[in-house]
Amino acid sequence: MPTVDLVSRYPELVWELRTSGAVVGRLEALDGETVWISSIVILPDKRGHGYASLLLDAVLAHFPDITIGLAANPLPSPKGGLDRGQLQAWYGRHGFAPAPMRGDPHRMIRLPS
Ligand SMILES: CC(C)(COP(=O)(O)OP(=O)(O)OC[C@H]1O[C@@H](n2cnc3c(N)ncnc32)[C@H](O)[C@@H]1OP(=O)(O)O)[C@@H](O)C(=O)NCCC(=O)NCCS
């Protein structure tokens, strides 16, 4: 059964997802008036099992009253991962809407529920 733990607090927030005791995923964010998710990464050989969705949902549940932002931009990864279109669609299914800004065309935000 995967677990999600907050391992670093304000202002840099870090959550780790573990399965069988081993860290397989990590989400980093910056706390503030808006919470900014700076990265979410699952180990290449653990992808496609729903771990990123589990991790994202666990983190979103912490912030029902806060605007959350991110850049839907894939990080370079040796074994690939979701591409930009897949990332945007995924974040869209989790309540994020495109909010491009000059200098940050892939910005998306999720307003408080
Ligand atoms: C992005 C990343 C974290 C996803 O991890 P993952 O554990 O494979 O993702 P999941 O299995 O939880 O799937 C996430 C979503 O993408 C969908 N998905 C998974 N594989 C897919 C594929 N090949 N095509 C389309 N959609 C796909 C899933 O259905 C899921 O959507 P849902 O929650 O609406 O059902 C992983 O690819 C990664 O670490 N990439 C490198 C780092 C990166 O680019 N991070 C994002 C920017 S910071």
Structure report:
- This protein is α+β, with helices and mostly antiparallel strands and 113 residues long.
- Helix content is 18%, strand content 36%.
- It has two helices and seven strands.
- The protein has helices at residues 51-60, 84-93, and strands spanning 3-8, 12-19, 22-30, 35-42, 68-71, 97-98, 107-110.
- The protein has a seven-stranded mixed β-sheet, covered by helices on one side.
- The N and C termini lie far apart (28 Å).
- The mean pLDDT is 94.
- Bound molecules: coenzyme A.
- Residues 39-42, 47-53, 73-75, 77, 81-82, 86-87, 90, 93 line the site of coenzyme A.
State the distance separating the first and last CA atoms.
28 Å
Identify the CATH architecture. Answer: 3-Layer(aba) Sandwich
Query: How much β-strand is present in the residues?
Result: 35-45%
How many distinct beta strands? 7
Radius of gyration: 14 Å
Largest sheet: 7 strands, mixed
Number of domains: 1
Query: Which percent range fits the helix content?
Result: 10-25%
What count of helical segments does DSSP give? 2
Strand order of the largest sheet: 1-2-3-4-5-7-6
CATH domain class:
Alpha Beta
Identify the CATH homologous superfamily. Gcn5-related N-acetyltransferase (GNAT)
Uncertain parts = none
Structural class: alpha+beta
CATH topology: Aminopeptidase
